[in-house]
Amino acid sequence: MAVIDAITTHKTATIRNYNTQPRLIYKTVVGVNGPLVILNEVKFPQYNEIVHITLPDGTQRSGQVLEITRNKAVVQVFEGTSGIDAKNTICEFTGDILRTPVSEDMLGRIFNGSGKPIDRDFLDINGQPINPWSRIYPEEMIQTGISAIDVMNSIARGQVLHSA
């Protein structure tokens, strides 16, 4: 496929479904204001779309599109905007929104606002086991009247009996 044909196909796909694959990469940062980055000449950005931002030193950050006005997009950067250079910062629009997988394996874990685990490991949700030496010594024994149980397997008042 010739380069001209590829460009034509890409433009047609962009106009038809407002989504480009692969996503376009922009170097059109026109301003930084607090946690916000303003990009100019962006084609078909989507609300809440995730943006990958690469700084001139190679550091990667993520952001989300908050506002769209014609060909401008305002992106909120999650990790802060310090070090963002308007001329050399690269922004890639992913075409996807922020998603978090959900399963029972998440129970007991700690996550940040982006849904990434920050505990680095699974935590035990059962708590600490009871130290048998720190328990109160049983003093009130219950006599069942069956000598085998009373001698071999004594039962104390308040004791929990587990069935087999």
TrEMBL record:
What Gene3D superfamilies does the annotation carry? 3.40.50.12240
What Pfam families would the database entry show?
ATP-synt_ab_N
Alphabetically sorted, this entry's keywords are: Ion transport, Transport
Keyword Ion transport present in the record's keywords: the answer is yes
Give all residue intervals belonging to the ATPase F1/V1/A1 complex alpha/beta subunit N-terminal domain. Answer: 29-95
The lineage's top-level taxon is: Eukaryota
| GO terms, molecular function | proton-transporting ATPase activity, rotational mechanism
How is this protein named in the record? ATPase F1/V1/A1 complex alpha/beta subunit N-terminal domain-containing protein
Q: List the GO biological process terms.
A: ATP metabolic process; vacuolar acidification
Does the keyword section mention Transport?
yes
Its lineage opens with: Eukaryota, Metazoa, Ecdysozoa, Nematoda, Chromadorea
Q: List the InterPro entries.
A: ATPase_F1/V1/A1_a/bsu_N, P-loop_NTPase, V-ATPase_su_B/beta
